[in-house]
Design goal:
With 310 residues, the chain is an alpha/beta fold. The chain has helices at residues 4-30, 49-64, 77-85, 96-101, 115-130, 150-156, 177-181, 187-194, 206-215, 229-232, 256-261, 264-269, 278-289, 295-305, and strands at residues 40-44, 68-72, 91-95, 132-134, 144-149, 172-176, 200-204, 220-224, 235-238, 250-255.
């Protein structure tokens, strides 16, 4: 059964589709131009392949509608929030857990482990407080995770995160700066939740984290569960057995003023909802991070394979 928030979104899309149809019919009848104005739109994505690929898909859809679109990568979440609030950003890709603990500053208590409940809360708050639309999940949950080498896991019998507790003082963990700085669901909160006291915490850019753990420069790495480099580099994810991380459903966020300026946008983007599962997202990420393909090419090819564009 659809939640109230998702029913509302579906209703909005159906309504805008009907409005567009009626407008087109009316324009054809009286001879007036029924085309929507060309908009100059801004799309942003953060610092790794997953948001690059998905935000590029949004860009391609918007361009197919006739708009001028600029896609800027490597924009941190707080900057995206500020830009959208200032009317300088129209769309960005995010995750429900990121919005929940970041922008909305919510604590991840036991009651907030449910994916649909977190989605509903974030959707309602973004709509009411920020005049933004949180579209339905894309279909995958890309949670933070802890990764180790397969050989290291086998040597020490590691299957779940709590298996690291007694070993932690003798281990080095690598983490990207974003995770180190996050409150609520970042490194400090995770360490407190599990009782980790790692011997050394090494900060590095996200792009070299996997190479560092694969080569043995660090013993454990913070990771994203849909990252294609995990299987490619013979790494394994340790189960979050103490349920620290909130759900991180991938989502697209849009500025309502932009969606109102062209009601076709919501209907066009709706083909993405629920269409990309974890395995698919990991495969797309691997094409960029492992095969070193251009993210724009990966995005366009996937859209063509699924019949979303010609």
């Amino acid at each position: 059964m659809l939640s109230a928030s998702r029913v509302k979104i579906v209703s909005i899309v159906l309504a805008t589709a009907l409005a567009f149809s009626l407008t087109a019919c009316s324009g054809a009848a009286d001879g007036e131009d029924s085309e929507f104005p060309t908009l100059d739109l801004q799309v942003a994505s953060s610092t790794f392949s997953e948001p690059w690929i998905l935000s590029e898909m949004v860009k391609i859809f918007l361009e197919d509608l006739g708009h001028n679109v600029e896609h800027t990568i490597n924009i941190q979440a707080d900057t995206s929030h500020a830009l959208m609030s200032a009317g300088e950003l129209d769309f960005y890709m995010s995750w429900t857990g990121t919005e929940f603990t970041g922008l909305l500053e919510m604590d991840v208590t036991e009651e907030w482990r449910d994916r649909e409940r977190v989605f509903d809360y974030v959707h309602e708050r973004l709509e009411e407080d920020y005049d933004r639309t949180l579209f339905p999940p894309l279909g995958f949950n890309n949670t933070y995770a802890l990764a180790v080498r397969q050989s290291f896991a086998e040597e020490h019998g590691l299957e779940k995160a709590s298996d690291l507790i007694d070993m932690a003082p003798d281990l080095t963990i690598g983490t990207d700066t974003t995770f180190q700085e996050r409150s609520g669901d970042g490194f400090d909160a995770m360490a407190e939740h599990y009782g980790f006291e790692f011997g050394e915490v090494t900060g590095m850019t996200y792009g070299i984290l996997y190479r560092a753990v694969a080569s043995g420069d660090v013993d454990v790495s913070v990771a994203y569960s849909t990252d294609g480099r995990i299987p490619a580099m013979d790494l394994v994810i340790l189960q979050d057995d103490r349920n620290f991380f909130p759900p991180y459903d991938g989502v697209i966020i849009g500025r309502n003023e932009t969606l109102e300026a062209d009601p076709r946008i919501a209907e066009t983007l709706s083909v993405m909802w629920g269409a990309i599962d974890e395995a698919t997202m990991a495969r797309l990420n691997a094409e960029v991070d492992v095969e070193e393909r251009e993210f724009a090419d990966v995005a366009r090819e996937f859209m063509q394979e699924n019949g979303w564009i010609e």
